[in-house]
Each structure stands twice: as C-alpha cells, then as structure tokens.
Design brief:
Blueprint lengths: L1 E6 L11 H14 L3 E8 L2 H6 L4 E6 L7 E8 L2 E7 L1 H4 L17 H18 L8 E5 L6 H6 L7 E6 L7 E2 L20 E2 L2 E3 H8 L2 E4 L2 H6 L10 H6 L4 E3 L26 H11 L9 E8 L5 H12 L4 E8 L1 H13 L3 E5 L3 H10 L2 E4 L9 H7 L3 E5 L2 H6 L5 H5 L6 E3 L4 H15 L2 H13 L7 H12 L3
Parallel strand pairs: 1-2, 1-6, 2-5, 6-7, 7-11, 11-12, 13-14, 13-16, 14-15, 16-17, 17-18
Antiparallel strand pairs: 3-4, 4-5, 8-10, 9-10
Helix pairs in contact: 9-12, 10-16
The protein binds adenosine-5'-diphosphate (ADP).
Length: about 475
C-alpha cells in the first residue's frame, strides 16, 4: 500500500459540521481499494480524544504556536488517525471553529496554522517508517500545508489542496505573518496576500502542486467572477492543475436496506412505512401531495430564503415540507413562523444525524435550492433512498441529478428535478412540476428507481484520485 497523508479539520464520524467531514471520513476506505494507505491528521478536539483510544505518541513539538503539542497515532472507527494534541489550541468547549455562543474563536488562524504546520512536518519527515508520497490537504484550515511544505526543500511529497467550499477563505490579519511563521517574501499578490490580509486558502491555491474541487461543474464555475470569490484570476492561472472529482457517499452508513436508524427497505415501495413514521414524528397529517424534506445548514449559500418564498406553490397543492437545520437565526425564526402558519409545514431546528436518516428515508423528495453548491451530499442520500432530488442548477447538483425534462422522462433516465435560475419563481415552478409528476405514480416510481440505481459511492471517484496521486508521485 502506498502512503498518503490527509489533513482535515473535521472527520466523520468523530467530529462533523458539514460535508467536509463526510468526505474526510470516507476517503481512506475509498483509497484503500486503490492501494493507498491513507492516514488522517485531525485536531485533538475533546470529542475526538474522548472517542479514540490511547494509541501511541509518534511525534512531539515543544512550541506549536504557544504551547507544547504531540501527535498520537490511533485507530478509531476503522480510520488511521494522527491526532494533533495541543491543549492550548484545541482542548475547549464549543464547536471546531466556534465558541459555545457561536462566535469564531479569535485564535482560529493560529489553531489551523498549527494543524497545517504539523501536516507539513509529517509530510516531510514521515512517522516512523511511514513516509507519505502525497499530502492531501482540505479547505482553508489545511491551506497552509503546501506553503509550509514548500519551505522544507525539494525532497518532499507532492501536495494537493481540495476545495470543499471556496466561500471560506481563511482570512487573518496581516500582522500575524511572523506569528504564523509565514515567509515575508510570500506576502504579495502572487502569494498568500489577499486584500492586504492573509488568506490561508489562497496560500494553498498558490503553493499546492495540484488543486481539486468536489465536482467538475464547480471546478468550471470557480474560473468565473460569479463563483470565484475574488480568486477566479488565480484559478484561471492554475487551470492546468485544477480538476473536479465528484464526492461519493458512504454506502454503508447510507444504505436503506441496512440503516439502523430506520425500518429498512430495498425498493421504493418499502418507503411507505418510513413515510408514515416521518409524518408522525413531525406531526404532519395525511396529504395527497409529495412529502419533501430539507436537511441543511441554514445559511445564505443554501438558498432556503428562496424556498420560503416558493413554499406556497408546494403546500397549497397538498405537498408538505419537513425541515431539519440550524444556523442563521433569522432563517430559523422564519421557518418556525412558516410552520406555525401552515399545517403542511413542520420544522425541527437543530443538528440530528439519526433524524436526518429518518427524514431522507421517509421523504418523497429532498430539496436542495443552493445558490452555489460545490458538490452537495444530501441529494446523493436522497437518490439512494428513493427521495427524488429537487435541486438548483449549480455546481455538483448539475453533475449528480439527471433532470426530468420531457426527453429525460421519455428516455427513462431522469432521477430528479432541476431549476434555473436560482430564484423563488423558478423553484416554485419546479415544485409545481413535482406535484404533477408525483400524481403520476408510474412516472414518480421511475424517477425513484432510476435514482436508487445510480452510482453514488466512491466507485468512480476513488480511481480518479488514485490516478492523480500516481501522476504526482511517480515511482
Ligand atoms: P455543507 O458541507 O455545505 O454543509 P453538504 O451537503 O456537502 O453541505 O454536507 C452536509 C452534511 O451535513 C450532510 O451529511 C448532511 O446530512 C449533514 N447535515 C447538515 N445539516 C444537518 C442537520 N441539521 N442535522 C443532521 N445532519 C445535517
């Protein structure tokens, strides 16, 4: 097996705030099928340490941005982890990035520079006889890995930066340069400087040997001003070293035939009981339209304000909505109000993994109205569970759903509905179409069956990553 180090700020099932964790948690098994031995460096948050065994200390650092640190190698949930134990940075309550009240930790630049620093050190020195041939960094939190690695001479592994979301640039005040051990010469427009600040993501985009993002369509979008977050020029300059590799989902965790969170089923027909249970859980009455769900962070990216305005098109036609999400307080309030105002809308504000399984299992359709979406995972869960995705035409949602256009239906390949532009008017149109299609049971069942047959695991993408790893680390 060929060694590869993955560096990520979250990793399911140990610590998760979004899709990055799912991917970081699923990649090692996917890459093992391709002959790659992936170990994952993650911060030692309390949740990570409490869920993993003692393992053994494989590296120590006297002063890692203000305190001592060590790397502990453990195996947890089948993952080979290298846990960065640095209590002064990671032993605290709240989430991975926020304090208990939801505010970003003020020392986030140093916390994730520390993660990146140790990623580069393990990349350059290995642990014991294990010497990675590739260092694969994820998002801004690991964005400084390629830069730090480049300072360690030529005899070093190649680096890859994967963008899971270009909207998070990892900004830090310019006067932290020395404290973050960044080379002064790199503080330029062609380097890690961005609007006179430091951008950890930009550093990764400049110094990585290769950049990937999580879908081919998002890779193309990043070259444009509309989606490039101010870095589209840099992305165009690096286009030859940019690829889009679609995320997969964990086919064991998300398997309607074996899912421990639900009464399992193997075909769309088995959904009936899951749907009745979901209605009961959300206190929704019987209705003759489709039961739609949303499982999402409530943020501007996800387009849920657009959904609020489009909802009458669904619920006034006998459709229903059950939403699970948390985040933006304004959106939480508006969804609660919508639920109070209409019997066909039910809302649960919170984060609940088990409930998310029950919802996708019981749903007729899953809604993903994102303004932009690097890949999106919930539409893939929907496909696997016979919950027809109704999605915005953007990013990975373009690449994973085959729309029910007249020809898509006639040729029998459609798996969902897509709307464009991302406006409430266009979404309302898609919801009206969904109600109509739902009332043609044969057509709806065909959409579900096509979706349930679609390849949504890592079968296709793991070989793509493997080919990239090979290209970047020839024997
Ligand atoms: P993002 O990473 O932008 O949040 P993705 O669709 O890539 O979006 O991944 C989101 C992941 O987080 C999915 O696994 C989804 O099921 C999960 N998720 C989001 N919100 C919730 C929630 N409120 N409860 C449970 N799971 C959630």
């Amino acid at each position: 097996m060929k060694p590869v180090l993955s560096v990520a700020s979250e990793c399911a099932p140990l610590i998760k705030t979004g899709g990055l964790a799912d991917v970081a948690g699923a990649l090692p098994a996917a890459m093992a099928t391709q002959g790659w031995d992936m170990r994952t460096l993650i911060p030692g948050y309390p949740a990570v340490i409490s869920q993993s065994g003692r393992g053994r200390v494989v590296m120590e650092e006297d002063d890692l941005f203000g305190g001592p640190a060590r790397i502990r190698a453990v195996i947890a949930d089948g993952l080979k982890l290298l846990i960065l134990e640095a209590p002064h940075l990671f032993d605290r309550g709240g989430g991975p990035y926020n304090d208990p009240s939801g505010r970003d930790w003020p020392d986030n630049p140093a916390r994730f520079a520390a993660l990146s620093w140790m990623g580069a050190r393990i990349g350059a020195e290995g642990v014991g006889r294990w010497m990675p041939r590739i260092v694969h960094a994820h998002d801004w939190q690991a964005g400084l890995v390629p830069l730090y690695l480049s300072q360690r001479g030529d005899d070093r592994p190649s680096s890859i930066l994967t963008i899971h979301n270009m909207a998070f640039l990892g900004m830090a005040p310019a006067n932290l340069r020395a404290a973050l051990r960044l080379p002064e010469s790199g503080f330029t427009q062609d380097g890690y400087e961005f609007w006179n600040q430091i951008s950890a993501l930009k550093a990764g985009l400049v110094w990585a040997d290769h950049i990937t993002t999580v879908s081919p369509s998002y890779a193309r979008e990043l070259l444009t001003q509309e989606y490039g977050a101010g870095l589209d020029g840099l992305m165009r300059a690096r286009a030859a070293n940019l690829s889009g590799i679609l995320n997969g989902i964990d086919l064991e965790a998300w398997n309607p035939a074996t899912d421990p969170h639900i009464e399992t089923y193997k075909s769309p027909g088995g959904k009936r009981r899951a749907k009745a249970a979901l209605r009961a859980e959300f206190e929704l009455d019987e209705a003759d339209g489709p039961l739609c769900v949303v499982v999402s962070r409530l943020s501007d990216q996800k387009g849920l304000d657009i959904l609020l305005d489009a909802l009458p098109a669904l619920v006034d036609r006998g459709g229903q909505l059950a939403l699970l999400g948390s985040g933006d307080k304004g959106l939480e309030t508006r969804f609660r109000q919508a639920a109070n105002a209409h019997p066909n809308i039910a809302v649960h504000i919170g984060y609940d993994e088990a409930k998310s399984h029950r919802m996708i299992a019981g749903a007729d359709a899953i809604l993903v109205p994102s303004r932009f979406e690097p890949c999106g995972l919930t539409q893939l869960y929907g496909l696997r569970y016979g919950a027809v995705p109704i999605v915005a035409y953007t990013g990975g949602l373009i690449d994973t759903v085959i729309p029910a256009t007249p020809m898509g239906l006639r040729t029998g390949v459609a798996t969902g509905l897509q709307f464009h532009p991302v406006t409430s008017h266009a979404l309302a149109g898609a919801l009206i179409d969904a109600v109509t299609l739902y009332k043609r049971p044969g057509t709806w069942a065909a959409l579900q069956k096509n979706g349930m047959r679609q390849q949504v695991g890592w079968e296709a993408s793991a070989p793509d990553y493997a080919a990239l790893y090979e290209e970047l680390s020839p024997d």
